[in-house]
Amino acid sequence: MAKRDHRPGDEAEKLASGSDSDEDPGSSPAGEVGVLGRIRVHPAGYGFVEREDALDDVFVPAKFRGDALDGDRVKLRTWEGFKGTEGRVTGVVSRGRAKLTG
Predict the structure, then answer these.
(1) pTM
(2) What is the CA radius of gyration of the chain?
(3) 74 forms bridges with which residues in the sheet?
C-alpha cells in the first residue's frame, strides 16, 4: 500500500467539499431511494440485502444498518460504491423472525 504525503490543503478541501467518512454517500442524487429486499447480517455487523427487483445484492456497512436484524425485509437507499452497490437501511418493513434467542 502506497503512503500518501500529507498536504496542508487536504483538510480544507475535505471540509469545503463536505466529505466525511461517517457521512451517508447515499444522500447524493445518484442513488436509488425506496429499494426493497431481505437483509442477511454477518456476525461482524455488516449485511447484504438481496433486492426484490433481482438486481445485484447491496452491501450495507454496520454503521448504516440501523435496527435491521437478520432476515428482515428492509427499505434502503443505494449508491455506487468502490466494489459495487452499497446502501443504508432507511426502515424495516417487516421482521424476518418471530422469536429471537440470545
Answers:
(1) 0.69
(2) 16
(3) 37, 92
What angle is formed at CA 54 by the lines to CA 35 and CA 24, rounded to 5 degrees? 35
Q: What does DSSP assign to residue 9?
A: H
Q: How far apart are CA 89 and CA 79, in angstroms?
A: 12
Report yes or no: 47 and 60 within 8 Å, Cβ to Cβ.
yes
Beta bridge partners of 73: 38, 94
DSSP result, 10-72? HHHHHHHHT--TTS-GGGSTTSEEEEEEEEEE-TTS-EEEEETT----EEE-GGG-TT--TT-
Strands 47-51 and 32-41, how do they pair?
A: antiparallel
Question: How deeply is 96 buried, as exposed, middle or buried, from its count of CB atoms within 10 A (0-12, 13-18, 19+)?
Answer: middle
Bridge-partner residues for 10, per DSSP? none
Using one digit for the tens of pLDDT, what is the confidence trace for 23-67? 555 444 567 888 999 999 999 999 999 999 989 999 999 999 999
